[in-house]
## 1
Amino acid sequence: MSTPLPLHSVTTQDPYPAWLFREINLIAAVEPSNGSSIQPDLTALARWLGEFQRWQAHQFLSEENRYYLLLGRRVHLQLQCSWLEGTPYVQQLAQVVARTGHALTLRMSAEQALHPPEEIKQLLQNRRIQKFLLNLPNPLTAQLLPALTELVELLLSCRVMPIFLGDMANLLQSGLLHNPRLNAANFTLYPSQRHLDFQPSHPVDSCATHLSWFIDSKGDIYPCGGLSGIRSAQLGTIFESAETTLQRMANHPTLPLQDLIQHGPTLHTAQKNIINRFNIPFKCLLHRKEIEAAPI
Amino acid sequence: MTLSLAQRVTLANKPLGFNALVVERTSRCNARCAICYQGSSPQGKVQKGKKSANDAKDLSPELIRRALLEGSRLDSLNKRFHLAGGEAFLDAELCLELFAYAQSLGYYDITTTTNGFWAKSPDKARILTRRMREAGVTNIELSTDHWHAPFVQPTTINNCLRACLEAGISVNLRLLATHEHTHAATLATLDPYLLNHTTRITCGPVFAVGRATEQLSTEEFFRRGAEGRCFAVLNLAIVPNGNVFPCCAGMDHTDGLLFGNIAEQHLAEIVHNINHSPLFRVVSYAGVSRFLQPLQHLGYPMKTSEEYGNMCDLCSTIFSNRQMVADLSRYNSQLEAEQVRMAIEYLQQSSAA
Ligand code: SF4
Ligand code: SF4
């Protein structure tokens, strides 16, 4: 690994516009390889965020003010476990996030999110969590509905925005959308099949709105969810210094970030007759295949 | 208006950033929806049966091009161009030309709001969306609900959704509801396959702003209260008469606090004016509800914060009233003098410590 540049020198070398990487997407899950604890490690994450925050403060005070939004404003936590395992993790993360001046969005499967414990209710009441994304099961059964309605009403009473990801026909049939409190609030629906079984005629566009600091449960950092797990696209890990991550981002050997921001991926491989069977945008599927050089 | 020291420092120093350059090209629209916050109609902005005195003709293509060029060089502006109306697609060729120009200037996120009226036939929809995609359009915000339906049928919305899906343009379906007309009722009128392939569906309540105040009964509205801050959701919005505002959520339809006009000033100068407006800095960083107490103190019969639909409802109320804005400005200047005094005191104390 090359010697890290001092923090301030990254700015003068990198060509990125100010509004990049506006969010941090964090996947937290039980890691059996790590004594079955929830990963990634919050101490390392807090240190990495803190370093980044100081780097940003430096940019903020520098005369150009160009990079003050690089780190973003929101942490999206995708919690892949139950309250029983995840509550202390969410509590600690909420503290870290508040300390570094971010907003927090929580994403969980609806079944696991039902009946939140008192500690989580308190976080909601104090608006330490601002948005709550629920992955709806398919089918959304009548037995689940009372507890789900209760959770949604709790979120609304705390002014936390609910976001639902699921099958729209299923959701409509369930009757949840007739709830008067829901109709009085702002909320968002993400249809779960939006990327499936389809190939658009113009699949590629700028990646600017897709990019984020995507941190998986091992603490590895990628520029977007679409490239997670691809080693050659990795920007760094939370176990190294933020300087090293930034430096690698500025001089990434294989990832033309500036081109991705402006134009999206350049695809050389044939794109015909492939059907998207994954819940990622079609262009990301193609980009992954391009990088992995897998036969299409 | 009590603020912490940290809030005062932010209020005084932190530069404002804008998520997009929003051009509201025209106040004309093929529809005349009862809930239109802009009061658009085929004749332009019409409220209380009258054409608005502030309404101008459409914003000229030359001025839009100039704004795009000037905006492309602004560091505090994210390179997103959003074309809105009224209904911008009344002149679809001009829209296509502007999208392509924005793309050539390096805007990487090119989006638009439409009611989709142009998608009456599947073929027409297919041709236009393909051309939009080639011109760089990445996303459309498609408005549909109980009040749009008399003007744009659900079959037309389905055509639009299908054509966008085929062309690779993502769609944010935007719905509004009242107590009587729910989101479920609107969604039930659309093709389930297309709904399931829509990128995103954004649902919100109708607030008592614009034409809704005269066409809907007060019982139908929801109230969420005026608390909240908007610094993270600001856009640089240009309205049809060329005035530039820091948002497109209500303040852009007022005339109590003006920052500049694109026909007369460079966009960078207007951004400077916004950044240095003490009143606007309070609105964005501290929240417009901060003004309630001073206004009551100044003798204005204000409602309580909870009685407003939302913060933008209060914001529109205040900034539509020039006298109120002038009084608030005076009040704020006094407050600023007080803040300087406190800052000096703080510095003296900390250097002594
Ligand atoms: S196309 Fe590639 S770089 Fe762009 S968002 Fe998708 S996976 Fe990421
Ligand atoms: S509070 Fe005012 S300035 Fe802020 S988003 Fe609402 S209307 Fe715009």
## 2
Amino acid sequence: MYQALLTRRYLTRKIMPLLASAAVMLCVAMELITWSVMGGFLNQLIASGRSLIGDVEISRPQTGFAHYEELVAMLEADELIVAAAPTVDAYGLISLGEGRTSFCVIKGIDPESFDAVTGYRDSLYWKPLDEPLPKDDAGADPRLDPEARDLFAALQGFGETLEPPERDGLPEKPLTILGLEVFSKRGLRTPAGFVEADVLTQRELTVNVLPTDRSGGWLEPTARRFVIANEFASGVYEIDSRTLYVHIEELQDMLRMDEAEKVETGTAEIIYNDQGEPIGFGSPETVGVDPARATAVLVRGVDDADLNVLRERVASIYDEFSRKHDGVPPVDFINVLTWEDRNATLIGAIKKETALVLFIFGIISLTSVFLVLAIFWSMVSERTKDVGILRAIGASRMGVAWLWIRYGLAIGAVGTTLGIGLAYLVITNINAIHDWLGTALGISIWDPAVYYFTTIPEDFDATKVVIVAAAGVLSCAIGAVVPAARAARMDPVKALRFE
Amino acid sequence: MISASNISKTYRLGRVDVPVLRGASIEAGEGEWVAVLGASGSGKSTLLHLLGGLDRPDRGSGAIRFGDTELGSLGAAGLDRFRRTQVGFVFQFFHLLPELTVLENVLLGSMVGRGRLGFLRERAQLTKRAEGLIEVVGLSHRRGHRPAELSGGERQRVAIARALMNDPPVILADEPTGNLDQGTGAGVLDALSELRLATPDGSPRTMVMVTHDTRVAERADRVVTIADGVVQAGAGQPASR
Ligand SMILES: Nc1ncnc2c1ncn2[C@@H]1O[C@H](COP(=O)(O)OP(=O)(O)OP(=O)(O)O)[C@@H](O)[C@H]1O
Ligand SMILES: [Mg+2]
């Protein structure tokens, strides 16, 4: 019993245990913050795949494959699959004029199905907002402007459908949705950091792509003018800085992947009349229709689907599909990949990096064991007489040892609790802290161009807290073992003589 | 009641053996108050520590007995238990725990050896006993104070109350007045004498008290002196310091 009382009194009466607790606090906070941020980074990287390719992507770059509507229907009939969407992906050069060009991934999408798979409509940036975003205390977001409400609502509508408005009964130029970071807007932000509404939307943009023929050879480049209907922000810098959405039919047309009549090859025939006089050229005979092609079909599984199972299912459906049609490449010639598969090297590297950083910080945290050991060693020395007194009134060696281990546990518990609190504060405010570092000290640790995400992700969860807390308390107890053993071995008579 | 016969105690200082006790014998009968005189460094404290089971005599030297028990035959746990239940130590330098209040210091004796549950179960009763002891030594009004806020005499009274918390049959006092002026010392001795007699059946506790002060020794039933590592009856030479 005396251990509990003395622990409590020792803790509140001395500066040393506070220092030890502070050391533990810092170690615990450091571990939790790194783990949460790196874990969050990884989670977000994995989750971001969904906003780009859904859960599984069937792809055949460049040449693509035909009859994709049928594949989509077959996929959607499966109970594991919620939706599927065809896309056409191409690299292209886009130009705003004034020499502003950018090399981008042009994604031809069917807005309806693409949204069903990726939820891209939620990522549209220009839309009316009623409430400021959580960080925007001043309400400086241009999207909050009530006068621009109608404009933003219209932009949102265009972004959702990609249907150009009509003028004089004819559609205007086709629409495109630009990744928010495509043309660096560093100099074009309001003081609060928001992009001005009228910087790019409603401006025209030229998209240049290189169609290929069936054998993969380049044909003449195609250029087309688009109007920027909206911008999107997936939160992944890599995507937002180099992706552009256009309507799938528009891109198929530009890449000559749209439906075409198949004709007899050879020269045009001259048609003669009954008298044998030439009366004109006959067009080559139509021998069939060359169906439109897509380069990828994206699949979204049911929410709790195991992605590997889903991928196998998708592959087998594709296999079945490819057997029905000549000219559709067999399953071995296409890619059926999850986002993690596609980024296996990167994700694997980040996983290893996380483990490594945790390991290194674990070793650093070992210093907290030694710190506790050193502090306890000196505290035991300082309290030698207390040990003598306790022994004189009948305390056992084990009892005295337990007093110190208990004390270590208490310091560990206090330090760990504070550390969790500190980590929580830092993690929940990490973006604000980072912004503050940037504005106040000019330090920008998190460069989105390097780290993929425009805000620092975090994943602070109970499992991590429990593991780190247990390690923190345990390391204190371990640090206390040696001084505790020393206290236990003390000769009580010498301890009483100690001045 | 408690006795040491023919015990030796040698300290090792580096390579040199320092014999402090060489075949010392002492006995205190039931309820007897024995005063131990001796020059500084003669081994008075050493003898007291041995009697209280805080230390063991040299291997092969004589035995210390408490009633029918030979302390040498007790293991570590047995000795801990012996100190906890059978003896109460009072020291020259009080030896209170500075972080604890007066009441907690007194209760400490009853906390040692009891688990948290055991203590909490008897808490009311134990607190009552502790408060009773504090009242006898005249410190009820300072129950919540810390040792640093008390005078020397007051601290020694707290130490006495603590020594008696577990109602031990034997008190071992090592110069309890050595650090106090004469008047205060007399008051402390009064408190000690009173508590010595405060037993359930009114029979006095056995007390071995080390002292320099012949006037203090005069209050004892019997006086012995340590010199040259052995104990002799009587006051011997007046102690010098
Ligand atoms: N742990 C130890 N190691 C070495 N020598 C010791 C140790 N403890 C005591 N001594 C020596 O033993 C001798 C007796 O010490 P002790 O404390 O018993 O004397 P004392 O009679 O109580 O003296 P005082 O009246 O000054 O308290 C002293 O010379 C002391 O230096
Ligand atoms: Mg002494």
